[in-house]
Amino acid sequence: MKATASSPLKKELRTYAAHKSELLRRVRGKYVLIKGSRIVGTFESELDAAHQGYERFGNVPFLVKQVMEVEVPLDFTSSLLGV
Amino acid sequence: MPGLTVQLADLQAEGPRLEVRLTDTAGAAAPTAVDALIDTGATVTVVANQVLKRLGLSPIGTALVHTPSSTNVRCYKYLVRLVLPNGVGLETVAIGTPLRGQRIQCLIGRDLLKNAVFVYTGQTNTFTLSF
Q1: Which of A9, A47, A60 sits opposite B91 (nearest CB)?
Q2: Domain spans, chain A
Q3: Which of A19, B64, B88, B92 is the most buried (most CB within 10 A)?
């Protein structure tokens, strides 16, 4: 589904935006785990961060995001994607 | 490196597809069997939204997606577990989108293929996937 303004990750995305400059200075390229307004930790891989999120919070929305200046879009050549 | 070989009636027409079971990483959700297409044109693995809904997974991130018909569409990401017909389990963070057509409900992308050997043998309508 498309992520919208009413996203279940809205609060986490705001937290990331608020701390982005600091994160870029400290942990550029790594993966940050955010729940609500709290930055839980940073990890070397997306999977590590996701596993830690599940261990701590269970199957609820939380945010794993790579700390980058500009987000790189993911490419798909297939016309099967309905977006 | 355990592998499996799949033979199809017409590999060119159908593409390298196989049935996989999708579930959550905790094993709490009942596994759902879906048809998956191995897609070297997909940066990461994709799972149909309806399957993710059935599994009851919560999003753990977002990503910008480019397709032949759209650019910069923001989609959710989900932690999923795929189990191949030979029992090999693979965990990844997949994109959730609608998938056109009735059949294919998962695209196995280069996030998983980076750890694989994938051999496409058109002359015998077979492909082999090893992890």
Answers
A1: A47
A2: 10-69
A3: B92
